């Protein structure tokens, strides 16, 4: 399957907001379509990021979208772009791992983080998107909090995420779609050794 073509088709059909074409142009200058989604967990493989973005889109629209009350443009934006912060974020390389059978050290592929713009996860995606197109408040909040309790800023016991989820159901839906895509649909999609 050509994830890049599917991403561009869905985005182009569903997002007509001013700046959408410029955002797509910018994406073409990044590694978004070839980057992994993580260093060694879900989608730690070539094109894992775009695969994950599409999986989140499909879960979000198939489970939670109601045409009579929701905007397909909004659902498309938040799902396809929630991890935009991962463009130009990972670096492919190798690391040494001891083979349990032979006792020999072997080079295995891996990905490392090389964050040139350490601005946070969700907020960095919001920032990058808004360089090109204006987000609605619910969209920005959903993208900002899509990591749920996995976000570093929540670990200290912040009530902000609870308030965000209470006020913006889209944020809850995006978080659930992200979890389902990550832990159910993408199980076993890593091409690197997790040792």
TrEMBL record:
Keywords: Hydrolase. One of its GO terms (molecular function) is hydrolase activity. It comes from Ruthenibacterium intestinale. This is Hydrolase.
């Amino acid at each position: 399957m050509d994830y890049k073509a599917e991403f561009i088709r869905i985005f182009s059909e569903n997002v007509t907001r001013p700046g959408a074409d410029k955002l797509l142009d910018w994406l073409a200058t990044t590694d978004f379509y070839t980057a992994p989604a993580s260093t060694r967990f879900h989608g730690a493989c070539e094109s894992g990021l775009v695969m994950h973005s599409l999986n989140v889109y499909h879960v979000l629209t198939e489970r939670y979208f109601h045409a009579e009350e929701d905007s397909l443009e909004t659902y498309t934006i938040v799902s396809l772009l929630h991890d935009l912060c991962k463009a130009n974020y990972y670096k492919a390389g190798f690391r040494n791992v001891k083979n349990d059978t032979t006792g020999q050290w072997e080079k295995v592929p891996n990905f490392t983080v090389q964050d040139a713009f350490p601005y946070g996860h969700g907020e960095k995606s919001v920032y990058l998107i808004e360089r090109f197109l204006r987000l609605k408040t619910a969209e920005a909040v959903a993208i900002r909090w899509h990591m749920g309790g996995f976000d570093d800023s929540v670990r200290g016991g912040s009530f902000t995420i609870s308030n965000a989820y209470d006020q913006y159901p889209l944020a809850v839906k995006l978080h659930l779609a992200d979890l389902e895509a990550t832990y159910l649909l993408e199980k076993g999609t890593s091409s690197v050794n997790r040792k």
